[in-house]
UniProtKB/TrEMBL annotation, chains A, B:
<dbReference type="InterPro" id="IPR009057">
    <property type="entry name" value="Homeodomain-like_sf"/>
</dbReference>
<dbReference type="InterPro" id="IPR036271">
    <property type="entry name" value="Tet_transcr_reg_TetR-rel_C_sf"/>
</dbReference>
<dbReference type="InterPro" id="IPR049445">
    <property type="entry name" value="TetR_SbtR-like_C"/>
</dbReference>
<keyword id="KW-0804">Transcription</keyword>
<dbReference type="InterPro" id="IPR050109">
    <property type="entry name" value="HTH-type_TetR-like_transc_reg"/>
</dbReference>
<dbReference type="GO" id="GO:0003700">
    <property type="term" value="F:DNA-binding transcription factor activity"/>
</dbReference>
<keyword id="KW-0238">DNA-binding</keyword>
<dbReference type="GO" id="GO:0000976">
    <property type="term" value="F:transcription cis-regulatory region binding"/>
</dbReference>
<protein>
    <submittedName>
        <fullName>TetR family transcriptional regulator</fullName>
    </submittedName>
</protein>
<feature type="domain" description="HTH tetR-type">
    <location>
        <begin position="6"/>
        <end position="64"/>
    </location>
</feature>
<feature type="DNA-binding region" description="H-T-H motif">
    <location>
        <begin position="27"/>
        <end position="46"/>
    </location>
</feature>
<dbReference type="Pfam" id="PF00440">
    <property type="entry name" value="TetR_N"/>
</dbReference>
<dbReference type="Pfam" id="PF21597">
    <property type="entry name" value="TetR_C_43"/>
</dbReference>
<keyword id="KW-0805">Transcription regulation</keyword>
<dbReference type="InterPro" id="IPR001647">
    <property type="entry name" value="HTH_TetR"/>
</dbReference>
Length: 184, 184
């Protein structure tokens, strides 16, 4: 792809992320306007709204995967795990809006988004293992239930348009459950 | 309503709860077949699919409210709170399927379902207060975050079609977070 085409593509994706994250039912025209490109340019890059939504979701999942991968080098494995968990939950409402817009378009996430999601889960699993090795997360918590808690907290925070103070108190309770029981 | 009409209504509601809980996209005809009544009888009681879905959701919320109200008399306030929490999460997938069928019909829950939901939340709040008074739930957990955890756990359990063993481990972690910190 030529540099200016790549530049347009990135601007369209950034605009789409912002607009669909706020208003799942927004139109492709709203995206074009926000990106400062013609509607024809949007359709050249993303022939359908489903393709555009899928690309936005993929970018978001890849960004989370990269963030988790980066955090795996943090010296404080507990802070890395809990920090990533909180970030996913805080960003959940816009991500969920995009997933729901996809479902409303009669389409589930396709292969690219699914593979980005798998990469994110794998990186999150590494953060969990490291946090357990450094005794910041209880050893008897396996990936499936911890991942279910991540999804659940994200949805719980979103469902009620939860205010940030309530979200933080919810996460405090959850994190107390995830920490190893005090010994002695 | 005459006794036989009431009887038909109840059979339609029971059939609809089972069918929509399993298959949100099921048709009113499937419900009539399962209830053993004619499609005309279904439409006489519930002129639209939205009205039928709404009635099913209301019955479900009222049942949970009644269960919570009953449990408020249990001598073991902790067992009552955690038992009710687990029951809501275990039943969540069918309830969510019904809510989602409503949303897919282009309709949110109407006044009757909303008021049944408010009754359920109020009864759950009482279970929470009693459990806190008997030191089975930490005193610093307020209703909004505990309710967010209930919604979140329900959605987390449903999202992945979570198997019951994983669901129970997820709830164990959550309940450890909800219990008061051990003293001494």
């Amino acid at each position: 792809m030529r540099a200016d085409a790549q530049d347009n593509r990135n601007r369209i994706l950034a605009a789409a992320e912002e607009i669909f994250g706020r208003t799942p039912g927004a139109s492709t025209e709203d995206v074009a306007k926000q990106a400062g490109v013609g509607i024809g340019t949007v359709f050249r890059h993303f022939p359908t709204k489903v393709e555009l939504l899928e690309a936005v979701l993929t970018v978001r999942l890849e960004r989370l995967r990269d963030r988790a991968t980066e955090l795996a080098d943090e010296p404080d494995a507990g802070a890395a795990f809990y920090g990533f968990f909180s970030q996913v939950v805080a960003e959940a409402s816009t991500k969920l809006a995009i997933s729901e817009a996809l479902v409303a378009s009669g389409s589930a996430a396709g292969e690219t988004a699914r593979s980005a999601g798998a990469g994110m889960r794998e990186a999150f699993g590494k953060l969990l293992s490291r946090a357990q090795q450094s005794n910041a997360v209880r050893a008897d918590a396996d990936f499936p239930e911890v991942y279910a808690l991540l999804i659940g907290a994200s949805r719980g925070a979103t469902a009620a348009g939860l205010d940030p103070a309530v979200r933080d108190k919810m996460l405090d309770i959850l994190y107390d459950g995830l920490r190893p029981a005090p010994t002695g």
